[in-house]
Amino acid sequence: MVEPQEVTFSDLLQHPNRTVAQLKTSRSRTLLVHRRGAEDDLILTTATRAARTASWSTSPSDCCER
Known about the structure:
By secondary structure, this protein is of the alpha+beta class. About 40% of the residues lie in helices and about 20% in strands.
């Protein structure tokens, strides 16, 4: 299994374009986003990849109310 690249939450906020570029070039199409303190870390991935590994659809009507 390919390990995700790691970034900080601050990187994501301060350099969003660069961080998304890392996501696009990552073999795993996943970034591990480290957060400070006791907060849980986050996983950033594409909606298509998340749909493949989860039991939900990427259709906006399936996941979000408008």
